[in-house]
Amino acid sequence: MPAKPKLGQNFLNDAQAIQRIADSLGDLSGHAVVEIGPGQGAITGTLAARAGHLIAVELDHELALHLKVRFESERVTVVEQDVLRFDFAAAAAAAGERLAVAGNLPYGITSQILLKLAASQAALDRAVLMVQREVADRIAAGPGSRDYGLLSVTVQIYGPVQKLFTLPPESFTPPPDVHSTVFRWRFAPRFAELGVEEESFLRFVRQCFAQKRKTLANNLRAASVAPAAVAGALASAAIDSHARAEALPIEALAALWRGLQATY
Fold it and tell me: Are strands 53-58 and 32-36 parallel, antiparallel or unpaired?
């Protein structure tokens, strides 16, 4: 079936990469796996052969029908649905365990899917995902690097990430205009460990990174945080008053959040 550019379809055609993706998920025997956007089923067959139960979530109606015929088995369930509406918690409850996830994510909604997975973290154990190389660089970046920012903190607060390998455009049909990187994400949220409340801390992080060229203090003041409170929290957390958010590890951002909470 031809790809549909409006759905961000670029089908993987690299047999070695398919095996590496499946291998990166670890032992799947007897376990439930969700595949996001299986497309023509390039990875689906390998995952189905290894997993106890595979749930393939495909938005495209024609591809979903094709997959149902090709993988007619009790061990494979094809769900015709937008993954942003898929209920990971219900799938995990039915499986009686946390899920493994795999997927070649459409470039246009990569961030939305990552946020969906983060919101579903209680139902998930690990994910091996393919995204645009530049996005993977941002996801895995450390403080002080050019790529470190809001996306880095938002993903890494839910668990460690590791870039695995990068594929050239010719590994796909049709070839995209960019390279793609596969990374692994293990779900182990750090909110309790860092002593922060999930929703308000994520909102705080968005404020910290609102304007990359501004200092952390100026971004917080722009978010209507009292200057005296900002100065006091920075001093309490031993953070330079001229520091920018991209220079700070998650631990320092958490310390600053705790300091600000103590002033209200």
Answer: parallel
